[in-house]
Design brief:
Blueprint: H1 2-12, E1 15-20, H2 25-30, E2 33-35, H3 37-46, E3 51-55, H4 58-67, E4 72-74, H5 90-99, E5 104-108, H6 113-117, E6 121-123, H7 128-133, E7 139-143, H8 146-153, E8 159-162, H9 175-184, E9 189-192, H10 198-203, E10 206-207, H11 210-219, E11 224-228, H12 233-240, E12 245-248, H13 263-272, H14 281-296
Parallel strand pairs: 1-2, 1-3, 3-4, 5-6, 5-7, 7-8, 9-10, 9-11, 11-12
Helix pairs in contact: 1-13, 3-4, 4-14, 11-12
The structure holds 1,3-dihydroxyacetonephosphate and iron/sulfur cluster.
Length: 297
């Protein structure tokens, strides 16, 4: 079986498989760790294996390569990107900074290595508030996600100026989706990701990163939840809580790039140790500072 062959080859190659919570279920099942961006970054910084097989999208594998430059980072599907991460370039960020001298730059990890290299500190959906609060500056440029930036600004007195990027999967949820889901499942708690629009967040019961949603679903005595994040999340939720029910806020919430990885591609990556993810040293050295500063918060 494909999965058995992957597990055998993984040992032979001294490899570790990291998978994001949105990955196809069969890929999550062969992973050593599945998690949100923060957990996967932490794992990439500390793993001892020689090879990291990263099942997710480009910025996640690049973060692993930046944090572990002595390791081989392999991405089974090199064409899996995060459209939001490409909504700001290094040059655009340099211009944004020039317009706001003295402001600190916080970049969501869903960004290119070049943008990280131009930033003071990174954040993820799990630690955005703590990261912003850790800064001395009172003015913050937040890139690229306008929705996460606006969510964080609810919890701080600092002035946050957001870039106009967004995740097409989460930005697509509407208040009408909430109304429909609430009518179908009265009294059921709605958990959403902070990449959702402010008006959707206003109607949610709780706002968490993907692993925050998983933690809450496990610990809560409730037996049913409406889930306002990418539909792949429901695989993990159901696996960890077979007795509970999870209803997607919308079936349309599919991240096409997260679905590009397959078991066949994971096996081929382990066989060939390709496609390799490498970040030019000069950019990686500067980007590492912003990521490590976040990990220290
Ligand atoms: P998490 O860090 O919450 O897993 O989010 C990553 C992501 O890409 C959400 O769309
Ligand atoms: Fe990017 Fe959105 Fe896909 Fe997350 S769900 S990887 S933010 S496009």
């Amino acid at each position: 079986m494909l999965a058995d062959e992957i597990l055998r080859l993984k040992k032979e190659r001294n490899a570790v498989i990291l998978a994001h919570n949105y990955q196809p279920g069969e890929v999550q099942d062969v992973a050593d760790l599945r998690g949100d961006s923060l957990e996967l970054s932490r794992a990439a910084a500390r793993v001892e294996a020689e090879v990291i097989v990263f099942c997710g999208v480009d910025f996640m594998a690049q973060t692993a390569a930046i944090l572990s430059p002595q390791k081989k980072v392999i991405m089974p599907e090199a064409g899996a990107g995060c459209p939001m991460a490409h909504m700001i370039t290094g040059q655009q960020l340099r211009e944004f900074k020039a317009e706001h001298p003295g402001a600190a730059v916080v970049c969501y990890v869903n960004s290119s290595a070049e943008v990280k290299a131009e930033s003071d500190i990174c954040c993820t959906s799990a630690n955005g508030i703590e990261v912003v609060e850790s800064l001395e500056e009172n003015m913050v440029l937040f890139v690229p996600d306008r929705n996460l930036g606006r969510y964080v600004s609810r919890f701080t007195d600092k002035k946050i100026i957001t870039w106009d990027g967004y995740c097409y999967v989460h930005d697509r949820y509407t208040t009408e989706d909430v109304r429909r889901a609430r009518a179908l499942h009265p009294g059921v708690e709605l958990l959403v990701h902070p990449e959702c629009r402010p008006e959707v967040i206003d109607l949610a019961d709780r706002v968490y990163s993907t692993s925050g949603i998983a933690r809450h679903a496990k610990e809560s005595p409730a037996r049913e939840f409406i889930i306002g994040t990418e539909v792949g999340m429901n695989y993990r939720l159901k696996q960890e809580n077979p007795e509970k029910e999870f209803y997607p806020l919308s079936e349309k919430a599919v991240c096409a790039d997260m679905k590009k990885t397959s078991l066949e591609k994971v096996l081929s990556a382990l066989e060939t140790l390709e496609p390799r993810v490498e970040v030019p040293k000069e950019i990686a050295d500067r980007a590492r500072g912003a990521i490590e500063r976040m990990l220290a918060v």
